[in-house]
Amino acid sequence: MPHVIVKLWPGKSEQQKVRLTDEIVKDIMKFLNYGEESVSVAIEEVEPQDWAEKVYQPDIVRNSEQLYKKPGYTM
Length: 75
Fold this sequence. Notes:
The chain has one domain: 2-Layer Sandwich (Macrophage Migration Inhibitory Factor).
């Protein structure tokens, strides 16, 4: 715990995915004070034509109250 799932379009290299994972783990350790052994990260590739059905509707629209960063908004 915690477990992070990153959903993105296919096309990123294995190196990019590993670097992203490393940075997510470092930030979780830094900001939430968990040890590396407690963190897991999954990367799920979703085809662009499936994005609305498999990600946008179920994860963003239906769970908008859980979003800390909404699409289209800058931080």
